[in-house]
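Tutorial, part two.
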Amino acid sequence: MKKIVGVVIACLFVFTLVSCSGLKKSEIVGTYDLINMNAGGVSYNEEQLASIKATGRTATLVIRDDDTATMDLFGSKTEMTYKASTGIFVIKGQNVKATFKDGILTLKDNSGTIEFRKMS
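Running the prediction step on this input gives:
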């Protein structure tokens, strides 16, 4: 009996870890505004980005329900795909880990971190 209980607990633990690694597509689909960036040797905080945006330039991420997304950083557009179940976005052939908490989507890889706030 102890072995069966141990196996069940181990399976539940593994299921919990696996389920936490992904994103909920229904939550992440939408339009986002860039709020922080420290990637590829370029760094902007929310205040600096607000100054840039005041000139009419935008920095957004649009995540669609069809597993595609478009990132527009001040006129430079990048198409990407994602798999919500794994929390991985594929940007220019590179896997980028994504997390979503309290309306903030964070994309992080070896070159740095980019954060977006969900607008809609």
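The chain is about 25% helix and 50% strand. In part three we will examine how such features are distributed along the chain.
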